[in-house]
Amino acid sequence: MDNSESVYHVLVIDDPSFEREIPLDAATYSIGRHSSNDIVLSCQKTSRNHATLLRRTDVKTNKCSYWILDGDLQGNRSRNGIFINGKKSLVHELKAGDVIQFSGDAHAKYKNHYGVDKAVNKSPILNSNESPSNLGVKTIDKETIITPNSEIVVNNRSKYQESGQYNSLADLSPHPIIEIDFYGNVTYINSAGLASFKDIQYQKLNHPLLDNLIAQYHQGSDKIVEREVTIEDKTFQQTAHYLPEKIVIRNYIIDITQQKTIATQLERQIFLYNQITQQISEGIIIFELATKQIVEVNSSCTHWLGYSGDEMLQMNIYELLSESQRFAAILRKIVTEKNSFWGEYPLSHKNGNIVNAKIKIDLINLPHQERICLVIHNVLEEQESPTNSSKAVDYLSQRKIFKQQLITAIANAKRSQKLLAVMFCQLGFLPDIRLTIGTDKSKKLLLALGERLSTCLRGGDTIIPWEEDKFALLLPQISGAEEVAKINQRIQKSIEQSFKIGDTQVTISSTIGIAIYPQDGDEEAILLASANTASIRASQNKTSYQFYDESMNAQSLVALEMESLLQKAIDQQEFKLYYQPQINIDSGKPEAIEAILHWQHPELGVVTFKNFIKSAEQSKLILPIGEWLIRQACNQIKVWQSDELPSLKIIISLSSVQFRQANIVQTIAAILTEIDIDAHLLELEISATSLMENIDYSRHLLEQLKELGVCIAIDGFTAGFSSLEYLKQFSLDTLKIDHSLIAQLTDDPQNIAIVTALIQLGKGFNLRVVAEGVETQEQFEILRRLNCQHMQGAWFSNPLQAESASKLLQLNFLEPAQDS
User: Fold this and answer.
1) Geometric angle at alpha carbon 468, from 467 and 473, rounded to 5°
2) What is the DSSP letter of 382?
3) What does the DSSP 8-state code read for residue 800?
4) Whole-angstrom Cα distance, residue 605 to residue 219?
């Protein structure tokens, strides 16, 4: 056959309600139940994105063929798979006569024709509800026949009459379906109904399921009635649909005996749990990890701490603690390391005294939420709080007084149209200082600090110790933010001066959060929360003070929720690796493959790495996630080796937090030894920004990594880096041209000159140069003219799941499909 002879590809779809013949000429077709697909299947047993057709062109013969992949190009597989000629297949090159089965009722057949003239227009593929009347088709007896200007043949013949179709479907239901007329005669019963209620046709209205149905209709009941019916030892949920236009009552029955039994057992277990927790001697507090809100307490706990159960259920856990920073550190360690805490801890009694108790803290993993269980095993002693001018400092009592003063100040400010400010002064390093100088000197330090802060305030201002390491300040009747800023400056200068406690010289740090009425809140609780949020933000940003901004609260909640979701993703193994090849365009073959982290969230779907990397780094959860990524990628190398696939180098992006991790070299070395792979098959990708932050540290770390044998790539490289002169200081193997440069790549001489310079620069340093983010043919052609030998991007392949990547390697990937 002559190579120039035309070949036309056709896919014949056989769906439950229609048939259609589709000429194939595009590079890709998506197939599935969702309406967004190029080819839409109506069968409910098919997946939303069931399969993908890909056209592949052989550059030597200029012939193209179509391949079918299970699922979509993002690596998501279909629920039931695809079968080619009766055999399940993940990837398959289609040949004339191949029969494709998507589900029990949805099939397709692939055909090709040689030398047949075809004139088709590119238009959207019809689904079963669209009319072909304006697409150049002619209709004979409801069956459309293809003409030269048409694209699809659709068989619109109904397979079933309405009632016959319903009865056919109903008979397949595993649950009983029963219809009666308004005289009580059974007019229809499906197979499940006959098997469950053999005598219902004879009992008629005397049967418990049909009893009183007609009477309810005559009494004016709703068109749909739901009820539970007990027959012997079984319970059924019955839904009766009154259809007066058809003169029938259609009943759907579901056996809920098992659910009722489980519910009864669950109620019994809950009752026993409540009885046990209320009678044991240990105190129990359960609170939400994300919000710290107390959700459950028992009677022993209320007895020891002096509150009623209702009072504690309205409280945040921090209101019961005297050392909030230490407790926050304990929680972080519990969540990160999955360990329990066991030891002594001071709790706050309602009367203001400190209750030293032996406690145990554990993380409770529940579906879609995390809670903390705090168990008070025994109270060691109850002490009076530290004294201030011979008076007991009762934090809780003082907070109540402060809140009342704030409420009064807000009322006065509202009446006089004045401003006021609330400030939280959070002290830093106090736990460390307390360990150094002892408890007694720490109390004296706090007293001295409170006195010094008081001298910075105006007459009429209020300051109280809010917690052991935090002061609250109220500034009524201020002229504006400038006045508050001046007071803040006095406070900061005062705190910067060291304290002499006995023979010990102590220096402390602080961060201050400021909220102003009414812009940051017009109620006492909102103002306090705003000032606290600003204080936290100041600590995070490592600044001495921070005015509240309304975006902070939303950002804090989002950050907290994201951290919780990421921790849950680690626990429930929701992370997946996708793989994208780097192509050597001279050989047309993959030369390396990058492992790209995705998050398979059960509700959000696939979340790409760039959408959660910032939260992962801020929460330091990137460390366990990153270690999992390295281990999983190395395991994949081992799998490909065992499958006798080419030993390709696998590339892993190392975040800036990982790069600064003290034991990163030891961690990677341990993984390589454990999995037993050659180190040169692993390439670590490090951003140019991370390398340039500390030249000496980066050079030393790269030397250690190179000693292991791993390869190093510099990522995110652009012409804007003033650090080009430092490039020779690092031991590198690969230079990646940043995707932002490739995205702007056109025939513009300036853009081409920049990329050319980077390619030549890399080659001058004897580095492998990779252009990432190649997505169009134009970008591909320009880079090829510039002698860029290595490319990566969607033009060649989207990131694929491991199985699809394996198949891709087996196909000996040569070149992307090109539009003809």
Assistant:
1) 50
2) E
3) B
4) 49
Domain encompassing residue 748? 573-810
**Residue 582 and residue 524 share a domain:** no
First to last CA, the chain: 20
Residues 533 and 439 placed together within one structural domain of the fold = yes
φ, ψ at 185 (rounded to 5°): -80, 135
| Residues contacting residue 403 through CB under 8 Å, at least 6 positions apart | 524, 528
Backbone torsions φ then ψ of 472, nearest 5 degrees: -110, 140
Please check whether residue 525 lies inside any domain of the structure.
yes
Q: Which string of DSSP letters, residue by residue, matches 231-290? A: ETTEEEEEEEEEETTTTEEEEEEEE-HHHHHHHHHHHHHHHHHHHHHHHSSSEEEEEETT
Output the CA–CA distances (angstroms, integers) from residue 447 to 148, 352, 430, 807, in the order listed: 94, 18, 14, 71
Q: Which residue has the tokens 């020779």?
A: 728
Domain final residue, candidates 137, 154, 171: 154
Instruction: Concatenate the DSSP letters of all residues of 639-708 into one string.
Output: HHHHTT----EEEEEEPHHHHT-TTHHHHHHHHHHHHT--GGGEEEEEEHHHHHH-HHHHHHHHHHHHHH
pLDDT in tens, 331-348: 888 888 888 888 888 888
pTM for the predicted model, two decimal places: 0.40
Distances (CA, A) of 677 to 161, 591, 672: 64, 18, 6
Two structure tokens written together for 130: 């669209």
pLDDT tens-digit series, residues 492-532? 888 888 877 777 777 788 889 999 999 988 888 889 888 88
Q: Which residue bears the tokens 């149905």? A: 213
